Amino acid sequence: MARERLVIIGGVAAGMSAASRARRMNANLEIVVLEKGADVSYGACGLPYYISGRVRDASELVVHTAEFFRREREIDVRLRHKAVGIEPGRRVVQVEAENGQRIEMHYDTLVLATGGAPEVEIPGSERGNVFYCGDLASAVRLREFIEQKRPRRAAIIGSGYIGLEFADALASRGIEVTILTRSEAMIDGLEPEIVAESERVLAAHGVTVLKRAPATQIAGPEGEPATTVQHGLAGSLATDLVILATGIRPRTELAEAAGIALGRTGAIAVDDAMRTNVGGIFAAGDCTEVQHLVAGCAAYIPLGTTANKQGRVAGENAAGGRARFAGVVGTLVTQVFELEIGKTGLSVEEARRYGFEAGSVAITSVSRAKYFGGKPLFVKIVWDKASGRLLGCQFAGEDGAAKRVDAAAMALQARMRVADLLHSDLGYAPPFAPVWEGLLIAAKEAMKQN
Amino acid sequence: MARERLVIIGGVAAGMSAASRARRMNANLEIVVLEKGADVSYGACGLPYYISGRVRDASELVVHTAEFFRREREIDVRLRHKAVGIEPGRRVVQVEAENGQRIEMHYDTLVLATGGAPEVEIPGSERGNVFYCGDLASAVRLREFIEQKRPRRAAIIGSGYIGLEFADALASRGIEVTILTRSEAMIDGLEPEIVAESERVLAAHGVTVLKRAPATQIAGPEGEPATTVQHGLAGSLATDLVILATGIRPRTELAEAAGIALGRTGAIAVDDAMRTNVGGIFAAGDCTEVQHLVAGCAAYIPLGTTANKQGRVAGENAAGGRARFAGVVGTLVTQVFELEIGKTGLSVEEARRYGFEAGSVAITSVSRAKYFGGKPLFVKIVWDKASGRLLGCQFAGEDGAAKRVDAAAMALQARMRVADLLHSDLGYAPPFAPVWEGLLIAAKEAMKQN
């Protein structure tokens, strides 16, 4: 009897999590991973630190090699194999192999983990000194470029958290960095107080931010590296190097062509078992939308940590299991130079956009006793005036700010009210915290308003 | 018309929180604080760091001086005034003033914040080189003693977290430290894996721990400083200095004499408004018991952070408000040399003692990316097999272990099940965390057992 075959399209976070989990569930399953690139299972979130040099070798970012998966987990990883079509009726994937050959591959179950692609296409992106922030091969080329060509100036297109992390990385190498961004808010959904603080820190490290300056063209002499970026402030920025960090959109072309339904956000719609609307086909990671437990609807929030969780659920279910992924509360942590930032749930503006009558309060507390290096800790909380329910929380500061978001994320998951936070039993000792945690102080202030 | 008078007995954490909150609530109230010692409102949790020298001056531990409370908050703080009796029928407190004079003071409402006293009385404690770990005056005398007499050896009686923090402080001054303890478990309720790790760290720093060695007598030549501590291992430890850190019991003598009911734990029983059983009398802080939300009953867990919260509630209600303190989940964080420890909820043993059929799982994860200084992170979780509910969580490690307890504390407050933790949306980025937080990995392991 032929073994059942699981085919997974995409071999980074979601894809390899799905493959590993499916193997755990079923030792007899045939598992094939089709990866169009040359690497699997790398930590894309570590790329900025490879550029800065903190990560010495690209191999440190590779969690497991393709060889490891083949040998240790009996997963048939095929690198440089691009899926170009799916026929759900025949349960077949069309694949373009490394040598250009087209093959047809049968599947019993299929997991789509096709990831994301740059959101904005900018003319001139094909020039040799233009790098995409999102994959390992591009990062390896970028570091080689920096070490060989010693560029003096860099233009980063996009001010999301990845753009800011690359700004930090390049500035730490002595490169003069300018960020070009369409938006006013920098990271989507970041509260204005934290945006202002981020700008202050960027400026202090010599990074220029041009807002409302969408890049329109990457230009230079015909067939040569780019020398300027034209942007919507009707200006032109001279540069030696361009980073594309405009955010990502879900890669859904394959899915759409196969009749798989997309959601309202434009990403693949999945239920809590990671099933698409087509029988036998699951999806996970940056190509899918995710249930936002605070907003109460689907959202597109591509993140490595979510991709890993979804991939695990998809892999378990593709192998006959019954796992469920409930959704996210919208947690994000990042660091821009010395400034740690943590966000969970909805910002004031997001809450209003989702139809809540939102109250908010911002306070500045302290991270721990001053004699243990305590620093100011900014905390902003957002709540629903109708129900008193916590809707979001953001932290910023130079000491222990980012991970403070975890307690708030749990409170959001549990749908706690602000009143429930007044006396939460969070850890206190001088090396770690003040007697009154910032979150509790913010809750007290909120209660005065409600 | 005479102003209403609130009298507060005790001027440290709970007492001064109550006084300040009552003043905020009612500008006209007369507020008198009777403090038997010479200081108010100091951070007792900072005392070990004053001994180590990290806190340079004792004044840094004083949040506000008596003078500040008098001037800025119109609170009549009377130092060196000892309450010696309460007559609830006449609403009168008997006070022994600084000069030995007895006065009677009328109250309309009364808050008892009498704190705790050393749990164990050991003969010989009155000798000049014996110091109590719990108050500022004793800590000031201790540091003077260390700086003037340069003791070579110290005996610490008790291995709770305060004993361990003092061991760290004294060892950092080059003093050879021996801890004498009755118990096997060191800190009450600490899981054995963390006890073992603490012992390893203490030994690495030259601290000796003698277990099952309760101190029975502090001895020395008549009228001279102590030279030995006799202990239950039938031994005698030579020392130049003794620290009493045997844990504290609630100071309830005044309350008992006034007919105020104690709870099952031996501390003053209060409801969630901090009311005692006697009309007009509230209590807060280390003299009271507290509702343990996980155990579902009262417990005695004296902690500064709880005292502050309870004090605030007592003060608000004593001034006519309607605040409530729901209780604690048993969170404790501490640091022993480089080892950070965090505990929340119940240990396996505590859970069984409270009647749960407890499951547990221990794993070792990592605090963050290795290239950001990540270190092993030990996580143990405890759950109720009948309901799947999380009952407790402990963390230990050298990097970011202690405050990771906060997310678990929120989960306990919300009565979450282990299954709810599988996909919790905790913050991930290489400078701060691994893709899978230790808590989530532990939850996954737990689900395999359940």
Question: Care to describe what's here?
Answer:
- Two copies of one chain form a homodimer.
- Chain A is of the alpha/beta class and 450 residues long.
- Chain A has three domains: 5-42 and 57-115 and 249-318, 3-Layer(bba) Sandwich (FAD/NAD(P)-binding domain), CATH 3.50.50; 120-246, FAD/NAD(P)-binding domain; 332-449, FAD/NAD(P)-binding domain (3-Layer(bba) Sandwich), CATH 3.50.50.
- Chain A is built from twelve helices and 25 strands.
- A five-stranded parallel sheet of chain A has the order 3-2-1-7-18. In chain A, strands 9-16-10-11-12 form a five-stranded parallel sheet. A five-stranded antiparallel sheet of chain A has the order 21-22-25-24-23, sandwiched between helices.
- In chain A, helix 1 (13-25) runs parallel beside helix 8 (304-318).
- The longest helix of chain A is centred in the last third of the chain and has 15 residues, at 304-318.
- The first copy, chain A, starts with a strand and ends with a helix.
- The mean pLDDT of chain A is 95.
- The interface between A and B is large, with 62 and 62 residues.
Which features does this protein show?
5-stranded parallel β-sheet, FAD/NAD(P)-binding domain, homodimer, 27% strand, 12 helices, 3 domains, alpha/beta, 450 residues
Q: Compute the average pLDDT of chain A.
A: 95
Q: Strand arrangement, largest sheet of chain A? A: 3-2-1-7-18
How far apart, in Å, are the first and last alpha carbons of chain A?
67 Å
The class by helix and strand makeup of chain A works out as alpha/beta
Question: From the structure provided, what is the oligomeric state, counting identical versus distinct chains?
Answer: homodimer
What would CATH call the architecture of the largest domain in chain A? Answer: 3-Layer(bba) Sandwich
Q: Give the strand tally of chain A.
A: 25
Poorly predicted residue ranges of chain A: none
Alpha-carbon Rg of chain A, integer: 23 Å
